[in-house]
Amino acid sequence: MDIPINIISENSSSERRITPSWTISQLKAKLEPVTGIPTQSQSLILEAGGQSLITITSKDEDNTRLEEFPLQRYCNINVKDLRPATIRPNYTDLSNVPKFEITPDQYEQKTDSVLAWKKANKLGRFNPSATEIQDKTLQALEKEIKEREIKVGYRCRIDGEDIKRGVIMYIGEVEEIPNSAGKWIGIKLDEPIGKNDGSLSGKRYWGKEGDSKSGIFVRPQRVEVGDFPILDDLDDNMQEI
């Protein structure tokens, strides 16, 4: 059975499904197009729950399977680049990338653009009923927040998954998310399996710089408030002895 795992590198972060029967070499080959790091330059560090960091390595990586390591759902595999910093590609510096630029007025005049197509078909903000539709959406979000008793400081879980338990840290608009009218729920998860550290595009909603990636913003319909204490891995293990 495949296991969902967070793959984290210097230039990327994504959730992937890993098959435990893969060998270490197979995993590295699959991670190369994801991280941009050649297989021979990858160092894989497993971060699972409260356990110590484990290096996924072997003298015979072509025949050592991942099932020999304590993989857990939504644990982290940090992919470090062993190449010297001077020869690593810089994927974030766009200063030398050729760009096509156009002013807003020039774009407005084009007849073969997405904007022109939306105007012709009366879609989005060009829909005569757009304001009414947006108002209903905002009202529905407010209703969800009230009915689900979502409040800052309350414990909750997301999508009914116990692995995604946490504390509600923020309720409100999030301008950094494109096309995101209406309130979002900012949650600090108990485990570092989120999408951010409580900040988005330089704006901090909670926490401080350097915090783990345990933050996530979701719509209220995905949030379930209740008595969801922090899971104790030790207690779970003791019950299985």
From TrEMBL:
InterPro entries: CAP-Gly_dom_sf, CAP-Gly_domain, Ubiquitin-like_dom, Ubiquitin-like_domsf
Gene Ontology MF terms: microtubule plus-end binding
Source species, domain of life: Eukaryota
Pfam families for the chain: CAP_GLY (PF01302), Ubiquitin_2 (PF14560)
GO annotation terms (biological process): cytoplasmic microtubule organization
Main subcellular location of this protein, as a coarse class: cytoplasm
Domain CAP-Gly: 175-219
PROSITE patterns for this protein: CAP_GLY_2, UBIQUITIN_2
Keyword Cytoplasm: yes
Gene Ontology cellular component list: cell cortex; microtubule plus-end; nucleus
Keywords: Chaperone, Cytoplasm
Family annotation (Gene3D superfamilies): CAP Gly-rich-like domain, Phosphatidylinositol 3-kinase Catalytic Subunit, Chain A, domain 1
Record-annotated Ubiquitin-like domain positions: 1-53
Annotated family: Belongs to the TBCB family.
Official protein name in the record: Cell polarity protein alp11
Provenance organism: Golovinomyces cichoracearum
